[in-house]
Amino acid sequence: MDPVxxxxxxxxxxxxxxxxxxxxxxxxxxxxxxxxEDSVVQRRWWVEQWPDGAGYLAGLVAQDVQDALLxxxxxxxxxxxxxxxxxxxxxxxxxxxxDPHWVCHQAGVKVAAVGSLARATGGATSS
Length: 127
Description:
three-stranded antiparallel beta sheet; globular; mainly alpha; single chain
């Protein structure tokens, strides 16, 4: 059996982190998980063209899924920090960089690392 390539490891890690956040938000239905898979397929090509971007995959997949969910269902993930005012989604920062976090621009705070929303929202965690 061949060892798993660094590219595949990075893709699997990005998939797992985004799925953990979807589970935390209790939105990991089959059609939503398909959005993650679609993003991973597209990002596979992207990182093959730019191998140095492998460390950016988690943030990019999170943004791809967030954009796809906005088009189909609405904002995700909703900010758990701002309890008053209109509900709003968190953003991924940096938009293109390592160590992506969900941030609330209205409150000006980092809420959680991508993959760790369960800690911030009290949502479900996978073990």
